[in-house]
Amino acid sequence: xxxxxxxxxxxxxxxxxxxxxxxxxxxxxxxxxxxxxxxxxxxxxxxxxxxxxxxxxxxxxxxxxxxxxxxxxxxxxxxxxxxxxxxxxxxxxxxxxxxxxxxxxxxxxxxxxxxxxxxxxxxxxxxxxxxxxxxxxxxxxxxxxxxxxxxxxxxxxx
Length: 158
Hints:
Shape: globular
Largest sheet: 5 strands, antiparallel
Radius of gyration: 17 Å
Order of helices and strands: EEEEEHHHHH
Strand order of the largest sheet: 4-3-2-1-5
Structural class: alpha+beta
CATH topology of the largest domain: Methane Monooxygenase Hydroxylase, Chain G, domain 1
CATH superfamily of the largest domain: CarD-like, C-terminal domain
Low-confidence stretches: none
Number of helices: 5
Distance between the termini: 39 Å
């Protein structure tokens, strides 16, 4: 299980550091929670310890895996449905998985689609969210600054 100081990723929110494990009463029920701070934006998230694994909470990738993520970003885009709704749902499932490589795939595919045909408002918001999730993990994995990681992503997507 995780402990204070661990760098973790919470699907749909991004990467952060567990600051505390606290007992809290919510809706009359007392439970233990991981208190996670997201470095980008400073938001705090409470995750029930007994549901952490089921929610997809996992450790941040090792620094050696960052190059593999960048490889996903550099690769050719995969075939996506031309139907906006199907494409949106498929991308949302990839983001919800919490898998850094699938999130990188969503970022790559949406950036390339944006350059070719443009994105709808919903897909633009999804791209921004997926990019933020990816950046937050790479910042913690490499112990680097957000600006440096943003530049790394831009280079890989160029």
